[in-house]
Backbone:
């Protein structure tokens, strides 16, 4: 949430900069103001990212345009801004022996990416959190289901198909961070 507020402040700052630059137009012989177009482009890129983060669709932001139809520079920059806000959470049982928690967490992440190949996670922020046992893990799964968040469970065949970990992808509007704030990193 804090980062999104920072982005909003950046947009306000860019708007002030654009107004100041526009006010100097009459003083320029050709009407061309150096830096104005660049400031407008920075504002547009940040504005699109901000709106997407708030749950708007591209069509709602710019009628008739998709993110794919935009120039690659714009698309990459918008995705870079948004990637700062996207997090992949992997919850894993701490009662597993030795290195098994790490192995099971990897399986859950792989399972998620297989199940949702177009999820939008670009190997950005990855957070491994530990829960005490299978019962607590299943309680967390139910909380995810109740919120309508996509997730993927991994059941370990060598442990009689026990649920050992799950992965869930969080866009800022889903608020997984608040849901998992009391868990410790693995």
Residues:
């Amino acid at each position: 949430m804090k980062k999104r507020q920072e982005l909003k402040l950046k947009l306000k700052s860019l708007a002030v900069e654009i107004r100041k630059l526009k006010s100097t137009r009459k003083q320029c012989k050709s009407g061309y103001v150096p830096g104005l177009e660049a400031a407008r482009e920075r504002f547009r890129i940040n504005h699109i990212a901000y709106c997407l983060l708030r749950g708007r669709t591209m069509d709602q932001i710019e009628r008739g345009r998709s993110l794919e139809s935009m120039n690659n520079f714009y698309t990459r920059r918008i995705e870079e801004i948004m990637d700062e806000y996207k997090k992949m959470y992997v919850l894993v049982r701490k009662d597993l022996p030795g290195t098994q928690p790490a192995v099971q967490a990897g399986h859950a992440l792989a399972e998620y990416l297989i199940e949702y190949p177009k999820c939008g996670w670009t190997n950005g922020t990855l957070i491994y959190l530990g829960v005490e046992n299978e019962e607590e893990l299943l309680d967390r799964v139910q909380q995810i289901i109740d919120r309508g968040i996509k997730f993927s469970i991994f059941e370990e065949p060598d442990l009689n198909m026990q649920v050992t970990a799950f992965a869930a992808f969080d866009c800022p509007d889903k608020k997984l961070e608040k849901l998992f704030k009391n868990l410790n990193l693995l």
